[in-house]
Design brief:
There is one protein chain. The protein is of the alpha+beta class. 32% of the residues lie in helices and 26% in strands. The chain is built from 13 helices and 18 strands. The strands form 4 sheets. Strands 5-4-6-7-1-8-13-12-11 form a 9-stranded mixed β-sheet, with helices on both faces. A 4-stranded antiparallel β-sheet has the order 15-16-17-18, with helices on one face. It is globular and about 60 Å long. Bound molecules: 3-hydroxy-3-methylglutaryl-coenzyme A. 3-hydroxy-3-methylglutaryl-coenzyme A binds next to α2, α7 and β12.
Length: 401
Amino acid sequence: MQLGIDDLAFATADRYLDLADLAPVHGVDVAKYTVGLGQDRMSVCAPDEDVVTLAAAAALPLVEDLDDAGRAAIRTVLLATESGIDQSKSAGVYVHRLLDLSPSARVVELKQACYAGTSALQMALALVARNPEQKVLVICSDVARYDVGSSGEPTQGCGAVAMLVTADPRLVAIEPVSGLHTTDVMDFWRPNYRSTAVVDGRLSLRAYTDSLAGAWQDYQAQGGAALADIDAFVYHQPFTKMAVKAHAHLARVAGGPRDAEAQAAQIADTLRYNREIGNSYTASMYVGLASLLDHATEDLAGSRIGFFSYGSGSVGEFFTGVVQPGFRQHLRAEAHRRLLDDRERISHAEYLRIVAPVNPVDGGDHVLEPTTRGSFRLAAISGHQRVYERAAAADAGSAVA
Ligand code: HMG
């Protein structure tokens, strides 16, 4: 029996800042961003969007395509995020309600920087192995925020990926061997009192590639596939150039092709969506997977994909999956393209107005002006509670507290 990703969709905010509008503010040539970092745009959340609304929007099409029995088979929802909205209640419980899932389910939130989505995927695989009738909904949802004016600012973004993990998956079967690497390093973190990350940029680049080398060595020690038997590589993408650097590093460490063109061919399709969205932390690597599957011109069926998931702090994991025959019929490529093309370009002034998260701490009543065109929105924060609703365009007013 094979286990893996049966369905996958992503969501992002419906507005973006073009990095051409940020470069002059930082006094740099836009090529620093488009070439040096490999980023063109970054999605920016509206004040009435957060990880809950993004997560629900990503998962909605997956749930809508299931019949009643299929929905009832979702007995676990794992939501990975490092942009949590509560210290106690899982963001996943709000999402479970917004999606009208069965109460006969467990829901939990997972955190280890950008890595947590992969831990959710591995836990989901273990649960499905135990009961192959069960489906697990894994959602990775994040809003990447750095200080305005900092060097991390052009690497912001936001997005969510939802994956249905099942037996006999239609998209990608995940293979059992994993290489793991954990080390205590202060490269990037966000203390509870901050809404933006603290980062040691230089250290973070080295910590990422060290983690890749460590995870690869462990993957080999665990009996993993040879580098030459892996056809494409999907990396965590804080900015797309990081994946290019990481792949070159893996080639050095593992004896892969040294030729830049050959290396580029193994990752090029995974970078397309992230160039336009920016960092979406836990979701980023799985946006890269969507990008690969949606854009591949050659038939990927039977191809082995290598994944490197990195979360600062740090945990890294290298694992592989095999693309399933007929996967193309189950892609959501058109919806993904439409989502990105329909976003509104906002000015730098508008970006500055909305970039900070809404975070009243007085426990009073705060109604949020409807702004997002997404399927779900944060309608109010009232009496210390966040009130979410299905957006009017999607379904006239079913408020959920
Ligand atoms: P910086 O210091 O502003 O940039 O910060 P730089 O001076 O290093 O330049 C960046 C690149 O642009 C360089 O390329 C320059 O040469 C090039 P490289 O030499 O490295 O290949 N460049 C140009 N190229 C063309 N034309 C030009 C030009 N000018 C310069 N005119 C940094 C860059 C990434 C450090 C910063 O943006 C940052 O701190 N970002 C946030 C941290 C980050 O993303 N780290 C990545 C690894 S850690 C990770 O992935 C985990 C994370 O996702 C969090 C989590 O796990 O939760 C972040």
